[in-house]
């Protein structure tokens, strides 16, 4: 035992007389703070923090003694703090990145302690290569017609060397054959298209056939933004801490949801991509700003936010915000303008509904849209917010916008679906679409309290269905000077003061013609060149005395003349055949013999139904 103690004494004293106290004493931890301006590391500024042990005991944390570096960031939300620290390559981030920790400063010491952290988010680096693909564009789609190519680009996230559908981040349409498309890539600095460095993809053709793709042959350029910090998976913002933890993220590889408790402001200047849905629904948010947003990989929904007054998604006129789904702006009663979402370019539908204060702004990049547009119950909307829109692949629904007096606000040429104009109480005419030539579905004009005429669509040549229902002030409904083709039919129903259908003289054939419940309509002038119909219905028009204006009508499959109280004559002198149904009933002043005589001459179908007419008056 004596020998063991002597050995230990030699070890601790040694030849130089080292003191035991110095050997066992711990070196004090030190922290060095430097101000960090607002920017990439801290959105609102803060401190760059270095920590370590004072190994040389000089009272100063030297560079060689630093073991941990991080940023202690202030936030825009009182009482919420954030720490940002580099994350080495490993399990959390394959290529490394950053970790963001946020929480309430519960003890009020202006320092976020480990016990106060309630949300931790990893923002990982991503260096995947940019890949492209070229495919044929659907034929006959605006503006290319028969021939067109779609060029797409994005990061090859799964590393398979192929651009998969889920990896597409930007697209360009060219009116050339796919085999003629030429591409080239080059690095691009941060700018209008991307707030971070990006890959520029130039698209065009070898116009001079010299085997080179030269600058003057570039037809358009696409930019694939390089996300600096990627969060994998869906993210839900439930409170202020969740929001702060997201501030440094540039890409969410999933959906992003804002819930009811998500503070009053959401300012995310670095967020560029949300690769799933983005939903801001049922929140107390007053201000939402995501100026760097360039992509939403699913539907984008902003709905039922009763306090929202400021909404900025994307960079306005500088670059489009691609949305691979619907864009819905619904029930935000205090939002005054679309200026903050003017960059939105959806892949499908646009819905603007029940936004009481909305009256300004427009969609900058929407010239052609595959889906439908619905503008409904926006009390202050006075013009259609699509000043570059030329082609619509779905329907345009304009419903219940009480300040809308005209249909101005587009340069529409073609609507593939319906054009629905319903319940717009201050609309007086259909002016505002002077370039519109074709409506594939129906022009359906209903329940517009002050609509007096349909003037304004002077270039319209084709429509599926022409329909005017329950417009109590409408006096003239035929002012379509170039309309020659109505493929499905025409309906004029329950227009209380309708007197005139003049202007439809170019229409010669159609599916059906329904004229009913128009008490002041006394003539059918406007149909004097109509040759054939599948179904003709003339019902309950109190002022109508004859059908003589259908002077050239030759063939009808089904004929219905019903309950016209002052109808005296039929006068369908050119009619040659009614092939299926012949029905003339309840016209109290129409001599029955006139109906019988006409049926005997033209009816080739089943037994005619003739009843309730004037059986006492003779036929001349």
Question: Main traits of this protein?
Answer:
620 residues, 24 nucleotide stem-loop, u2 snrnp hairpin iv. U2 a', Chain A, 4 helices, disordered N terminus, signal, elongated, EF_Hand_1_Ca_BS, DUF7151 domain-containing protein, six-stranded antiparallel sheet, LRR_dom_sf, mainly beta, DUF7151, 20-stranded parallel sheet, single chain
**Rg for CA atoms:** 36 Å
Mean pLDDT: 89
Question: Structural class, please?
Answer: mainly beta
How big a fraction of the residues is strand?
35-45%
The unreliable regions are 1-18
- CATH class identity of the domain at 508-620: Alpha Beta
Could you estimate the helical fraction of the residues in percent? under 10%
Distance between the termini: 148 Å
Note the overall shape: elongated
CATH fold field value of the domain at 508-620: 24 nucleotide stem-loop, u2 snrnp hairpin iv. U2 a', Chain A
Give the second-level CATH assignment, the architecture of the domain at 508-620: Alpha-Beta Horseshoe
Number of strands: 41
Major sheet: 20 strands, parallel
Subcellular location: Cell envelope
Keywords: Glycoprotein, Signal
InterPro entries: CWI-Assembly_Regulator (IPR051648), DUF7151 (IPR055575), EF_Hand_1_Ca_BS (IPR018247), LRR_dom_sf (IPR032675)
Domain DUF7151: 30-73, 81-124, 186-225
